Amino acid sequence: MVQGRRTDFLRHAYFHCFHVKIKNIGEQMIRKMNLRGCLLENQSRNLIPELPERLQCGWNMCETIIDNPEIFYRHVDNHSETFPEGNNLEHGARCEWEGCETVAKNKYKLREHLRSHTQEKVIACPTCGGLFSSRTKFVDHVKRQAGVECKYICV
């Protein structure tokens, strides 16, 4: 197997593992919140998005490349750990991603912002496989689906 293809295959396989993990988080959330669950077809629940050619950190002076998405996302999170604890930092938490000028209120908001650079998703639908950047968006996905008995009938 050609090295580039092997790397692409590993990245793809690692993302499937990550996808299973966040689908499990979605399943737990449905149970915990006593939600009805997704009503969409489950045929595409194991499809994953097209992945970038490389998962490369864009933080200033960091060019780390990691093939495992989970490890890559945790690596990027670690950059936010350089800021102190607290809700409203005096000078904020400046994003040092290449070309970004964002200053977050604290390191937790910076961590959320960093997901816009990495495209990290934190939860997935266990039924349809949809990926979501926040738990709120996932809950909206589940709640906005009308059941068969809830659909409007035109007469």
UniProtKB/TrEMBL annotation:
Origin organism of this chain?
Answer: Mytilus coruscus
| All residue ranges annotated as the C2H2-type domain in the record | 93-122
Q: Name one GO molecular function term.
A: zinc ion binding
- Which domain of life does the protein's organism represent? Eukaryota
Q: What is this protein called?
A: Histone H4 transcription factor
In terms of InterPro entries, this protein maps to:
Znf_C2H2_sf, Znf_C2H2_type, ZnF_E-box_Homeobox
Compartments reported by the entry: Nucleus
> Which UniProt keywords are listed?
DNA-binding, Metal-binding, Nucleus, Repeat, Zinc, Zinc-finger
Q: Which GO terms describe its cellular component?
A: nucleus
| Example GO biological process | negative regulation of DNA-templated transcription
